[in-house]
Amino acid sequence: MTEVRPTASASLWERDEEIAAITAVVDTLCADRSSPGSLLVLRGESGLGKTALLAETRRIAEQRGCTVWSARGGETLRTVPFNVVRQLLQPALVSMLPEEAREYLGDWYDIAGPALGIAEPGDRHADPQGVCEGLVAAVRRLARRDWPLVLTIDDAHWVDQETLNWLSAFAESLADLPVLVVVARRPGGVSGVSTRHLDAIAAAAEHPVTVLSALTPPAAAGLTRATLGENADAAFCREVWAVTGGNPYETVELLAKVQDSELEPVEAHAGELRALNRSARGGGLVARLEELGIDATRFAWAAAILGSDITVDLVAELATLDHDDAIRCAERLRSTRILTDPDPCTGRTGPADLEFVHPLIATAVYNSIPDALRRAMHGIAARIVTDSGRGAASASRHLLEVHPDDDEELVRQLRDAAGEHLAVGAPDAARRCLERALEEPPRPEVHARVLYELGCATFLTAPARTIGHLRTALGMSGLDGDARVDAVVRLSQALLHNNQMEEAVRTVEEEAARLEPGPARMRLQAVQFMWEGLHAGETTAPGRSERLAALAATCTGRDNSERALLILRGFDAMMRGENAEVVAENSDRVLVNGRLAPGLGWTDAEWGVELLLMLAGTYVYTDRLDRAESLYSEALRSYETAGWSGGHLALAHAYVGLAHRRRGRLVAAEKSLRESLRLAERVGRGLPLYWTATCNLVDTLLVRGHVDEAWEVAERHGFAPPYPSTIVLPDPRSVRGRLLLAVGRTKDGINELEAAEKAAASRGHHNPVHLFWAADLARALATEDPARAARLAVEYRSQAERFGTDTAIGEALRCAAALETGRRAVRLAARAVAYLESSPCQYEHAAARVEYGILARSRTDLERGLALARSCGADGLAARAEAELTTTTGRAQ
Length: 893
What we know:
Blueprint: H1 16-31, E1 38-43, H2 50-63, E2 67-72, H3 83-94, H4 98-105, H5 109-116, H6 128-146, E3 149-154, H7 161-171, E4 179-185, H8 192-204, E5 210-211, H9 217-228, H10 234-244, H11 248-261, H12 273-278, H13 282-291, H14 294-306, H15 312-319, H16 323-335, E6 339-340, E7 355-356, H17 359-368, H18 371-387, H19 391-399, H20 408-423, H21 427-439, H22 444-457, H23 463-474, H24 481-497, H25 501-514, H26 519-534, H27 544-552, H28 560-576, H29 580-588, H30 609-620, H31 625-642, H32 647-663, H33 666-683, H34 688-704, H35 707-716, H36 732-742, H37 746-763, H38 773-781, H39 786-803, H40 806-819, H41 822-837, H42 842-856, H43 859-872, H44 875-892
Parallel strand pairs: 1-4, 1-5, 2-3, 3-4
Antiparallel strand pairs: 6-7
């Protein structure tokens, strides 16, 4: 009988088509640096040869000079955030000097570096989406250095959620990046967010998912004879196929057992194959392990607990074996094909002496450990990891498995681990740690704190869950003073983000009523006024503006609570249309030497982004665009530097776009707003930030004259009633009404503008720039109801003069001129030009100049208006000016 042992190549039987497909994409990758990337997904049940195909991919790629990075998911490692992406990238990064790594990753070093384990995390929670984008950028930059680059990921069904999030995002960028990614996974085995990520990865594949099939009877016979010798008879070969179902791994293992037992491969012995097959897996494997003795069994159990980076020394410590006994056990487990030497091609985060021959064996060994012992061994493993200096986060996967036992120290470790996870952008891992800490349970004096920390961990990903945690925490003792105020504010923010505005207001109002006068109460009052100011309900709280004005009048801006009240008072006064100069001067008192005060920055958590958006919005609509642009640009820089690329960055781009729109830089505005909408889509539809991006983009497209495109954006993104419960700048009803008029739905447009009129009146909002419904409604009614149109225009002018900005007065004069004829229309239009020429809003100036040129038949003003329109990117206005110039030339001739 032949002594040839089965090898990994046995799993490549009947894989010619798959190997040909892999060869083709590798050749395409190597052909040119400008070649597009590719993604292949191999799917099949355990043992069908996925790992062997990945090994063959490596062989083919390396033959052609490719760089190959590999990683593998692990069943017991799914809770370790960034585990697999670290396996992929760390070998390339740790070989660099720190200065080199920083140079390659550039601005992303401080964002993605902590997730990759090559940099210390910062002192605030990392934004998960920003970290994901940083990891995408890291691979893009490394790919340019290491072209042609091949990434292989095995057992993707066991890959941690954070890596899957990165991989699904990275897969979308492969079209312009010469990288080949090959992913192998089993069908099923995942749920929830991981399922969505794996589906997205499969959808991004250029080629259909390759589904691996079992060996056919002829292939099983060929493999049997190649292993046992040509004398293996047909009946024996058929039984090998029948017993294993054609599974390549099981076939290889069964044939190894046949060799070990020196069974003659003839029909007479075919009946013994089933017993041999049972001994190679499941309960048979466990029985075989027990036959090796208690020490070998304990060694195998300890290796299964560790899961990865298995070293003899670590296993010995966990299994309480001396070094020599551990070495003997390792050799015994190698000889029985339970453990083997690690594959040097697989990326690892630490040293390793051993790995399991197959994940099926690792799973069987792990599941064979008695439950109580398994939990105790995880506790010992956690201590070993912690004592080695790798930190609570590294130990957390073991801590999660320890049996609850009212252990105060375990609660502390889990809280520390949660903090470390949040610092690298893994809130789900932090959530798991804190939920497990609650099972311990914590001591009564810290229980509320753990709930509060859990609420903070779920804030970005599950606001509804956050609400429950924080409400429970506030109902317990243990949260006092500033900590309690922080929890109340965070609860109100979660309610706001969950579209429960009225409850958010009531929450802070009730807590403020419990406190004595002082900074804490003032902070809660400021938050209450802030939420009320953002609330777009049918009416405002009676006397709110008066109460806010009276409270703000006592403030000098000496601390951030007072500064917050001054911001809120300024925003309220702006929305109500009070004198803009006074409003802006009061807002300036908030700044310290023209800058935001410490603790009141865009990334500071105490107050949140809404307050600063109110401050900047006040400047936008009081013609202080220099201040507004400075604030919005600072927000954008702050979020990009901090790696916050979720909702915060979406809002920053939206308001940078708003500033461009008000300034008249319409092309730049559209670019910023499209980026904002792209980011907002990723965060979720229906949220206030989504409305802000959509509303501003529709408004910008309309003033550019791109009416059809504005309508398409509105339809695609649901820009229609019902409107959000928070204030959006500019007023969405006014923008929607303008859109309906522009597409010829005049009656619907009038109805929408009348609804805007009613909503503004009920809230006492009379700012004629933010709420521009009156101008469009007056123009729309000019023919069918000229008397009402005239009344609207007069009221519009009155409000504009009360507000007092050049933009407001100039726009009101434009409206008045549109309703007049003859010399009066010309005089009004001329006055509009005079005001808007002094305004920072260049589009409105261009429109006024063109309208005056038409009324006065002034070629000079038309030409100047045309130049302004072109510089703004107002294509529709430019076309109108060009047409009028042609007509004027014709009349002159």
